[in-house]
Specification:
The protein folds into two domains: about 170 residues, NAD(P)-binding Rossmann-like Domain (Rossmann fold, 3-Layer(aba) Sandwich), CATH 3.40.50; about 120 residues, N-(1-d-carboxylethyl)-l-norvaline Dehydrogenase, domain 2, CATH 1.10.1040.10. It is about 45% helix and about 20% strand. It contains twelve helices and nine strands. It is globular and about 50 Å long. The two termini are about 30 Å apart.
């Protein structure tokens, strides 16, 4: 559900390995999927799948085993309603979105038993209709049952990812993993978005590097106040990891900002600010990013 950078990449990998995949998309991208298929440009290997099943109407698909739920956070409720015709008694809905509250929203709309938690680690975007550009070599999914218990369905999904050559980790602590990713993603979105710079220049500049570390520390403090036991070294580990990444990588918020699309800022820095206010925790770096970037939240015009 959502054939953008994340859904398009992982969906194409699954389809190229022989899985039966239906792609929900819209606009020129959908037309390209129908006429020329879906292409992936990646250092991990290019893929082109054609013909494929692509539609903007989930009713044409019917019940499925798994929904990879990969829409933008601001579309979560509408997309949850739209996939109702794809839901069978045992359908799994695996969110691979950016925030920490999508799973709760999906559970409230579709039922707890259907929802798995997931975090995707990938920098990818639609380069042109029908084509996904994957930057760097990171393309990983961490997922698991929200309660942490093992399950045969999670093992089966893990097997499908493995068959498709997708790096996947089946985690017994997915709530912790979601907050670990959120600490990283929300913070690089905030600082790269404000600086209008890719990850490399932000890390190379001592001032923006300090701001990035401080923003990560703010999310960590919020998470711990909410009972999420992030380890003491999480900020240092994230910075060390960031140093290994391609310097040209841009968080999706910055990509959206540059092309004048809607931003997920309400569900990223906005969430940090709201939780900080509720818990009495100061989050000045995320507050500054939120105050600035929310002016572009509705997507007005490309920003360079």
């Amino acid at each position: 559900m959502g054939t953008g950078g994340v859904g398009g990449y992982f969906g194409a990998r699954l389809a190229s390995a022989g899985a039966k995949v239906a792609f929900i998309a819209r606009g020129p991208h959908l037309e390209a999927l129908r006429t020329t298929g879906l292409g992936i440009k990646s250092a991990l290997g290019d893929v082109h799948v054609h013909p494929i099943e692509a539609t903007d109407d989930p009713r044409c698909v019917g019940p499925v085993d798994v929904v990879l739920f990969t829409v933008k956070l601001y579309d979560t409720e509408a997309a949850a309603a739209a996939i109702a015709p794809m839901m069978g008694d045992n359908t799994i809905v695996l969110s691979l979105q950016n925030g920490v509250d999508a799973e709760a929203t999906l559970a409230s709309r579709l039922g707890d038993k259907h929802i798995m938690g997931g975090a995707s680690y990938i920098f990818s975007a639609i380069e042109e209709p029908g084509v996904i550009r994957h930057t760097g070599q990171m393309a990983r999914i961490v997922f698991g049952e929200l309660g942490g218990q093992p399950s045969t369905r999670a093992e089966a999904l893990f097997g499908a990812f493995k068959t498709a050559g997708i790096e996947a980790v089946l985690s017994p602590t997915i709530d912790l993993e979601l907050w670990r990713k959120f600490t990283f993603l929300a913070s690089i979105a905030a600082i790269c978005g404000q600086a209008r710079q890719s990850l490399g220049p932000v890390l190379a500049n001592a001032d923006t590097r300090r701001r990035l570390a401080a923003a990560m520390a703010e999310v960590t403090a919020v998470a711990r106040a909410k009972g999420i036991a992030l380890d003491e070294e999480v900020v240092e580990a994230h910075l060390a990891f960031a140093d290994t990444l391609d310097s040209t990588m841009k968080p999706s918020l910055l990509q959206d900002l540059e092309r004048g699309a809607r931003l997920e800022v309400e569900n990223l820095s906005g969430t940090v600010v709201r939780f900080g206010a509720e818990l009495g925790i100061a989050v000045p770096n995320h507050a500054a990013a939120y105050a600035h970037l929310k002016n572009y939240a509705d997507g007005k015009q490309p920003i360079s």
